[in-house]
Amino acid sequence: MRVALDVSAVPPQLAGAGRYIAELARRLPANGVDTTLVTRRDDTLRWHDWSPSSYVASVVPNARASRLLYEAWVLGTSATARTADVWHAPHYTMPHRRSKPTVVTIHDLTFFTNPEWHERSKVPFFRRAITYAASHADVLISVSDFTSRQLEEVVPHHAPLVTAPLGVDLDRFTLDARHDDDVLRAHHLPVDRPYIFFLGTFEPRKGLDVLLSAFEEIARRSPEVELWLAGQAGWGVKAIESQIAEHGAKDRIRRLDFVDDSMLPSLLRHAKTVAYPSRGEGFGLPVLEAMACGATVVTTSDTVMSEVAAGTALLAGAGNSASLAEQLDIALSMPDADRSERASLGRARAEQFSWASSIAQHVVAYDMAAGLS
Domain 2-167+354-369 is classified in which CATH homologous superfamily? Predict the structure, then answer.
């Protein structure tokens, strides 16, 4: 099977959908898929290094507007596309002119269900892209059962659908905390401070505003606890920046920005609790990574994260700072025995989400698109 995977929209710093696409690029060749990575013209070396067993075709224009036009009207009939058996568009959009069967990944339907969570200019674009892919792709891939159910509600008439939940690198995100103190010290971070850890892009739907409000209450009751925030700036960050600047415990809020992959497992394991109060996601990979590390996780109820956690995380109402503060307080004061039991349960649950099983479902989708199954 020869698959052309479009990685041209992946930013240098991997998060969310970018992490998913990068994991596909790295793992498909090891699973018997002859993989071509379709990249921007200035982005060749990164992908050669990341997936040395793949062929890299650097044909896509660098500028976003040019890239989208090129994808829609040129890329699908290019020589790169013609040499593949299947074209995989892993981020909603797909070629309008195409020469080969096409698989499209749908991450979430929040552009329809909660447009206020996104930049206004992106909402009509991605609504059109999802609607077009639903009726023109040969096969759709959804990253969770939650997204699959939403797709049935929002776009009931669509191409055949394969659900391929995301995975976690179980060899990197582990319970082994032996070197965590050394890792934190190497990055000039204290090892003796209890902290609540947040990981995610700074944007409205992640619930950072709710977390900061909840931390006002936590900080009053627990004078030693800090809040550590890791992630890159997205959009709508002015309100968050103002909230931090005016926070009553701003001297106990530590901004880590984007953290290196080698550092992340230690931060998750060492945290007193990991808070992921997102209002809604397609999957919520930070929750799964935290569970794999045995962290005590607090996330939001009635979301895909609560489904992924399956009873191993504490749940707060989305957008409810009082509820979040209550669950964080429970997590922070949890006895060691209960914390250890929850860590074991979380790890066991995380082990049900391997990248191997996710890749296997992707291969099913490719075979369906190529007419092999």
Answer: Glycogen Phosphorylase B; (3.40.50.2000)
